[in-house]
Every structure is written in structure tokens, then in C-alpha cells.
Amino acid sequence: MGLAWQQGPHSPTALGRFLTPEPLPDRLLFAERLRRRMRVRFGGEWIADSEDVVVLHEPGRYPVAYFSLSSVRPGVLVADGHTTRHRELGETSWFTANAAGHRAERAAWQFTGLPAYAGELEGRAAFAWPAMDAFYEEDERILGHAADPYHRIDIRDTSRTMEVRSGDKLIARTTRPVVLYESGFAPRWYVPREDIREKELTPVEGRTFCPYKGLADYYDIGESRRAAWSYRDAYAEVGRVGDLVSFEPDKVEVHLDGERLHLEPGQQVVPHGADRSLGTEEVLTR
Hints:
The chain is mostly beta strands and 286 residues long. The chain has one helix spanning 280-284; strands at 30-33, 38-42, 45-50, 53-57, 64-68, 77-86, 90-99, 102-111, 124-127, 134-137, 140-142, 153-157, 162-166, 169-174, 178-182, 188-191, 202-210, 214-221, 224-230, 245-247, 253-256, 259-260. The relative contact order is 0.13.
């Protein structure tokens, strides 16, 4: 979750509500300084480097980073004459990127008809994430989207009793599950593999990517498709759930201290788009 995407407070699918006497507009845009050094690589070269990046939070979208044009290497971005119109921010001009013999069309854009209230974005351009080689904060690569300071993950150990069943089969039983709290989502419960009957898990093809946790592998359980998943090579930041297994409570029976869990509002995840084409090795060696 972030401020304006997934189930964030400014997203179309927000779980909570603002306690105001009058309803807020359907769409609220929010811009703020990232306060991190961010760099862009294209054609094997650095084409942008800035500590003055503004992030735009737009309902239903992942955060987008806008660089001052002065921080972009001269000659890299060439206006291609193509324009579109943003519903709130006006006319948008698009650029082709050229560097080291590499060329990418519609690789960046700039709002050229900004209303007076959106001056934070004046003289700035954003790069199309899939068109670039990579984005970095300092010397570390970031995947998926610009950093969202409103996204948080907390992981907690617990001694509660958790059981997973599929029909009359016991799939897992543990008194040491790990719970992962992620901003805007219902809790996700993870089980050590030692407490799972692994023979009941059938690995399936197809992985998903989370910019905060890494690549997820999936398992069928009996006739229940993709009923469990595991971040076998979880990023170091969430290493405590690495190689543990979580179960979908709407596909198998998950009981916590004798009470059955159900899929809650906010549990569904909106699939990622921008970095879906990344290769496995690229994600694992970010």
C-alpha cells in the first residue's frame, strides 16, 4: 500500500475514510520532495542524478518520480511532438531518449500546461519505468516504482496456534507462526516449512513480484490452485519470512487459535505492471 494506490487513504479502494463533514473530491493528487538521491540509467549510462526529486501520488497509480530538467544529462531527451492531456495537470509533452546509441520512444514526459496550483512539477520530467535500464537510490537499485514513504512492513513472531486444512487433510500445524503486517493490507500469516506437510504442496509455474519482498513462488494444494506462496529468496529487509509459507484463507481452511480466518477487505493485491518483464536474475540481484 502507499498513499494513493492499493488500499491507501487517497486510492479509489481506500479501506478507511476521512472524518470530515463534507465529502472529499473523488481524486486528490499529492506531490512532495522525496528527500533521497535518485539516479536513472539508460543505454548503460547515467542520464539523471538528483537529490531534488518530487514524487507525485495519484489515485490508483504507483508513485512517480519527477526530475528537474537541469538534473538530466543534456541532449538525452528530445521532444517527439507527441502530446496527451492529463485530467488534472493539463497538456503533457513526450520525449524520446537517446544515449550511447540506444533510443527509446515515449521514454519520458513533462506537464507543459500545469495549472497554477501544481507548481511543484514545473520544469520537471518523469521517466517511463520500463523504458529505462534501471533506477537507483544512491548505489542500490530499486524495482517497481519510486519509493513511497507511506508504505511500511512489520513482522512479528507469535506463539498462537495455527492450523491449515484442505478437506479432511491437515496441511500444517504450528505454534510459531510469523505475522506480516503491511500498510493497508490484512495480516498475512507465515508458517515454517518444518511445520508443513510438504508433500501436500505442489509447486506451480508462474511467479509474482513485490518491490518490497521479492519474487513469490506458488503452490497448489489438492484441487485448490495457487493456495499458498513463499518468498524463498526474500529481500534482506523482510528476511524473517524468507522461505516460510503463507496460505490463502479463501482457498484452504486456515484456523488461528481455533477461529477460522476469511479473506478480508484489503487482502487482495493489485498486480504490478511496470516491472513484470524483468528477468528472474535481474530481480534477485537488484
